[in-house]
Design goal:
This protein is mainly α. It has 14 helices and no strands.
Length: 377
């Protein structure tokens, strides 16, 4: 049965959003780290830069992956880097451990603020939930992306209405006053840079595309779908500019100002769900890479026990890092290094080798043979 337009055009953007929203974006910590220092106007410019970068790189990545039939990140980087594909594998391993540690630290902070639990308890709860979802494979993961997206967009919409109804005047007043806008380009590029690997994480969804047009449309829509909640959240944060930049959990700070306990609980549930789908997306991509390699060697499909085992190994290491380092330090110290790493092993090869391959492949990938390590320009 042919894929629907939702699966071809919208689902990749929702999955990309799932990969990038994570522990810092959903809680507002990444927004405070990379956008608030540039000021209200500069922060908006940085958000625009990140969104445009995401749309452009997603569109190109999806188009190249469709043309070369690269439905997991291993095949994609064998096609881009040839014998040096292991460099991305190493970079992605660092990314997975760091990002899962951020998610775990964020979950720990949420339950500590909401219920007074030890931070490790919230971290463990998230990791168990992630392991449960990745064990069931593609269909379960795609359903998670869909339903969590409905919860996320609905909750963010209500959050914006409630915050701006009560604090919209100081937020808009802050936006209207000119402030220094230094660093907005660097902030936007850095934020886009370490998150852009989300385009590679969602490559299993490329199998739904029927044409290059589908790939480009899905890629262009990915930027706005992923950034819209962040833009609205940033506007709400301006009511407490600049002091909100020092909050470990800006979302919890704002919710305490609203003094609406039931909505506070709903919003924290939404953040936990966002952490769950992000962590699931990261580990599912790793499982799909292993499953494709397994099948290429004549093995059977990857069973639930094997998927769960891979998740367990990654999650245990991440729990240790999250417990020892903490959310704010992880975001401030780890993400900038990742941005430079992915620039070298992903963006530069995509803009060179990837564009070359796209220009020498037909627009329809239906008859295109798989590309392996020996097929390099």
């Amino acid at each position: 049965m042919a894929a629907t337009r939702f699966q071809r055009w919208i689902l990749p953007g929702l999955a990309f959003k799932a990969a990038v929203i994570g522990g810092g974006y959903a809680t507002g910590r990444e927004l405070a780290e990379y956008f608030i220092p540039s000021g209200p106007q500069g922060g908006l410019l940085a958000i625009l830069v990140a969104m445009v970068c995401w749309s452009a790189i997603c569109a190109l990545t999806f188009a190249v992956a469709h043309a070369t039939r690269s439905f997991d990140y291993r095949r994609f980087f064998v096609m881009l880097l040839g014998r040096f594909a292991f460099l991305f594998e190493l970079a992605y391993l660092v990314f997975m451990v760091l990002i899962l540690a951020v998610f775990g630290a964020a979950a720990g902070e949420i339950f500590a603020a909401m219920l007074g639990w030890p931070t490790l308890a919230g971290t463990l709860l998230l990791m168990v939930a992630i392991g449960g979802f990745v064990a069931f494979g593609n269909e379960t993961v795609e359903a998670l992306f869909k339903w969590v997206s409905i919860l996320l967009y609905g909750t963010y919409a209500l959050f914006v209405v409630l915050v701006l109804a009560r604090f919209g005047e100081p937020a808009m007043a802050t936006l209207a006053i000119p402030h220094p806008t230094t660093g907005w380009l660097q902030g936007g590029l850095t934020y886009a840079g370490y998150n852009i690997v989300g385009a590679v994480i969602v490559l299993p969804l490329v199998r739904h595309f029927l044409s290059r047009r589908d790939a480009v449309v899905a890629g262009v829509l990915s930027g706005p779908l992923a950034m819209l909640p962040g833009l609205l959240f940033f506007l709400c944060m301006l009511a407490w500019y600049p002091r909100i930049g020092d909050e470990a959990l800006p979302s919890d700070f704002i919710l305490r100002q609203l003094q609406l306990p039931v909505f506070h609980l709903l919003f924290q549930l939404m953040i936990f769900s966002a952490l769950l789908e992000s962590g699931t997306a990261v580990i599912h991509a790793c499982n799909e890479r292993i499953a494709h390699a397994w099948r290429a060697r004549g093995g059977a499909g990857m069973g639930r026990a094997a998927r769960l085992a891979v998740a367990a190994v990654l999650l245990v290491g991440s729990i240790f890092i999250a417990d020892r380092v903490g959310l704010v330090d992880l975001i401030a110290q780890g993400y900038r290094g990742l941005a430079y790493l992915f620039l070298v092993v992903y963006i530069v090869p995509l803009l060179t080798v990837g564009v070359w391959r796209l220009r020498h492949r037909p627009a329809s990938g239906a008859s295109t043979a798989p590309i392996l390590s020996g097929d390099r320009p």
